[in-house]
Design goal:
single chain; 314 residues; alpha/beta; Helix Hairpins; two-stranded antiparallel sheet; 10 helices
Length: 314
């Protein structure tokens, strides 16, 4: 809930200044509890958000930890190549402990396009084109324009999905940041996942707040455009080019932003579509979507070969 660059900070949720005294913070918490309590006409989701906000700043230790960069600070920042943080030499995701388990085959860089675009816009906005000491500093990120924060939020979402898919094992193959056959990089496919349960187009999103579904499309305060329709269009373009057929499309969202962990919408524009909480993604990819066709044996090899020969990265 608060680990997204787009999320309101606990201080904003409690309607108090970040430098408020501990006593003023406590008073603000009690006031917001009364205002949002469902028994007095408040909103249940906001009531839970107020409680979570208080958990993060209720003690001096917790508040200091949050102020140091809870959510998207150093732990979320990538490691850079020889050129350092301000260079265009590329970046690498944070190193992970050695894992000897077989992992899914992976091609492309998850979140790569949006990370690079974020760094470019952040330098233009905060550094006037120069390198920044820490482009992921929490204070800097929170004060950036929403379109800049949105790039970082989506990059983090794509990287989280990539970690989950990678853990599915060697029976799966995944392509990241795939060009959707259109000139606009925003029309890309975040991930293509191929496994025994089928072939899926996957969109990783973070809108910074709860979303709902209406007439087969996502709606919410932070939703821009038509994400489901865009996912379907990009997947059709890749399917035509590679001469393959997707079994379904999956939109992955943060757990706190969806009402149910797995919401299968049925067919949208001729393709089975599901809205899935991030923690439920591995379950969905292992069992497949309703109406999607399993792929095995020689067909799995053939589809992987066709995609490998066709896929272009943004």
């Amino acid at each position: 809930m608060f680990d997204s660059p787009l999320s309101a900070s606990p201080y904003e949720v409690l309607a108090v200044a970040p430098d408020a005294s501990d006593e003023d913070l406590r008073k603000a918490y009690r006031l917001r509890l009364r205002q949002t309590h469902p028994d007095t006409g408040g909103d249940a989701a906001q009531f839970v958000q107020v409680q979570r906000a208080w958990e993060l700043v209720s003690t001096p230790e917790a508040r200091a930890a949050y102020d140091r960069g809870h959510g998207f600070g150093a732990a979320s920042a990538p490691q850079y190549g020889p050129g350092g943080p301000g260079s265009d030499a590329g970046w690498r995701p944070p190193s992970r402990p050695a894992d000897t388990r077989p992992r899914a085959r992976s091609f492309g860089q998850p979140g790569g396009w949006r990370r690079e675009r974020y760094l470019t816009l952040m330098r233009e906005w905060a550094g006037r084109g120069a390198a920044l000491d820490d482009p992921y500093d929490p204070v800097l990120v929170r004060t950036a324009p929403r379109e800049v924060k949105r790039l970082l939020a989506d990059a983090l979402a794509e990287e989280a999905t990539a970690r989950i898919v990678g853990d599915l094992g060697m029976g799966y193959t995944v392509w990241h940041d795939v060009a959707g056959g259109l000139r606009d990089p925003d029309a890309k496919l975040d991930h293509i996942v191929l496994g025994p349960s089928g072939l899926y187009a996957v969109l990783s999103e973070d809108f910074g707040g709860p979303v709902r579904v209406r007439r087969g499309e996502l709606i919410g305060d932070g939703v821009v455009g038509s994400p489901v329709a865009g996912l379907a269009a990009a997947s059709r373009a890749v399917a035509r080019a590679a001469r393959v057929k997707f079994g379904g499309a999956i939109v992955v969202l943060p757990d706190d932003d969806v009402a149910t962990a797995i919401d299968e919408l049925g067919r949208v524009r001729g393709m089975p579509v599901a809205i899935v909480a991030r923690s439920a993604l591995s379950t969905v990819l292992r069992r497949g979507l309703t109406g999607a066709r399993d792929i095995g044996g020689n067909e799995l090899f053939d589809v992987r070969t066709r995609l490998q020969q066709t896929v272009r990265f943004v």
